[in-house]
Amino acid sequence: MLCSSFRSATASLGLGRRAASTIAQKYSKAVYSAALSKSPQTLTKVQSELNAISNVIKEVPDLKAFISNPTLSAKDRTAGLAVIYSRAEGSKKEPVSDITKNLFGVLSENGRLVETQGVIEGFNELVAKYKGELEVVVTSAAPLPRDLSSRLESILKQSQTAQQAKSLKISNKVNPSVLGGIVVDFGDKSIDLSVSSRVNKLNNVLQQSV
Predict the structure, then answer these.
(1) What is the mean pLDDT of residues 91-119?
(2) Banded pLDDT at 165 (limits 50, 70, 90)
(3) Which candidate, 186, 189, 191, 177, places its Cα nearest to that of 137?
(4) CB neighbour list of residue 198: distance below 8 Å, 6 or more residues apart
(5) Residues 6+ apart with CB under 8 A from 204
(6) CA nearest to 159, candidates 51, 22, 1, 9
(7) CA angle, 58 as apex, 34 and 198 as ends, to 5°?
């Protein structure tokens, strides 16, 4: 049932666009252009740095709270970014590039550190498009069984979007709030087959009927 619904959705490609922040997209494009103008190797280095920073923020509650707090002083923001850079360097202690530091410096000055994850996601999408990669994120309430994951992958490979890509990367993200079903994101498109989406639609209909 789920796979048949998904097959119909991918066949039509009349898909909703994800509600990405236009502000985050602006910064994503800026850092992508700056890195690529240097060299493909610089682009790869900046991507590695941004993904390391993303992971650090997710793993350290204090740093997650730091980027979400717009009331911090310039001094506190500078100190917090220094901690993030240090953590992102890891055991190799390879200095974070000026491009990455400039990005976060501007985000900090403009009070946009809260957009960090969106900026990194947008940057990764631009890099994937540049490399001809199609990254697909399947969000479900619980980890997908292997057989269902394989069937979804088979369906995705048959889609026009996937056939235009050089490679296909599929990952499963667990989010209990979807309740059941799946949400599939790839590129700037989204297929929402989740139970939570249906519940929300039902709630809207009921509210309009009152």
Answers:
(1) 91
(2) confident
(3) 186
(4) 181
(5) none
(6) 9
(7) 100
Residue 209, number of CB atoms within 10 A of its CB: 6
Q: Give CA–CA dist 72/62, Å, rounded.
A: 13
Q: First CA to last CA across the chain, in angstroms? A: 32
Question: What SS3 class is residue 94?
Answer: coil
Helix, coil or strand: residue 164: coil
- Mean pLDDT, residues 117-133: 89
Report in angstroms the alpha-carbon separations of 155 from 3, 4, 24, 128: 8, 9, 31, 20
DSSP designation for 108? H
Q: Is pLDDT above 90 for 27? A: yes
Q: Could you tell me the pTM of the whole model?
A: 0.64
- Packing angle between helix 98-109 and helix 40-59, nearest 10 degrees? 50
Residue 208: predicted pLDDT: 63
Q: 177: which 2 tokens? A: 């709030």
CB of 48 within 8 A of CB of 42?
A: no
Let me know: does 70 contact 142? Beta carbons within 8 Å.
Answer: no
